[in-house]
Amino acid sequence: MRRSVRGLPSRPGVGWAYLSPPALLEPGEHTGRYRLGSDELLVDAEGNSMISMEDLAVALLDEAEQPEHQRTRFTVAY
């Protein structure tokens, strides 16, 4: 089920997506891999929620080039 983010335009034809970062976002290594989520904080088996700035940028560009989260919020993490 797709949910809208409060306060964002609900007019037809207005395209938007909201990328929520994980709990920890730091400069690091570009791995080219990440997991996608929606309304819940993504955590790994140890309870960590993180991604490098480099991989967050890749995820953002991937969404811009091939939108999968139109008019909704999504998150990324390892």
Could you explain the architecture of this structure?
17% of the residues lie in helices and 24% in strands. The chain contains one helix and five strands. It is α/β, with parallel strands linked by helices and 78 residues long. The chain is globular, with a radius of gyration of 13 Å. Strands 1-5-3 form a three-stranded mixed beta sheet, with helices on one face. Strands 2-4 form a two-stranded parallel ribbon.
The chain-level structural class is alpha/beta
Give the radius of gyration: 13 Å
Strand order of the largest sheet: 1-5-3
The span between the termini is 23 Å
Shape: globular
Uncertain segments of ≥5 residues (pLDDT<50)?
Answer: none
What's the order of the H and E elements?
EEEEHE
Largest sheet: 3 strands, mixed
Overall number of strands:
5
Q: What proportion of the residues form beta strands (DSSP E)?
A: 15-25%
Helix content: 10-25%
Tally of helical runs: 1
Average pLDDT, to the nearest integer?
89
Would you summarize the structure shown here?
This protein is α/β, with parallel strands linked by helices and 78 residues long. 17% of the residues lie in helices and 24% in strands.
Which short descriptors sum up this protein?
alpha/beta, three-stranded mixed beta sheet, two-stranded parallel sheet, 5 strands, 17% helix
Write the topology of this structure.
Elements: E1 17-20, E2 24-26, E3 35-37, E4 50-52, H1 53-65, E5 72-77
Parallel strand pairs: 1-5, 2-4
Antiparallel strand pairs: 3-5
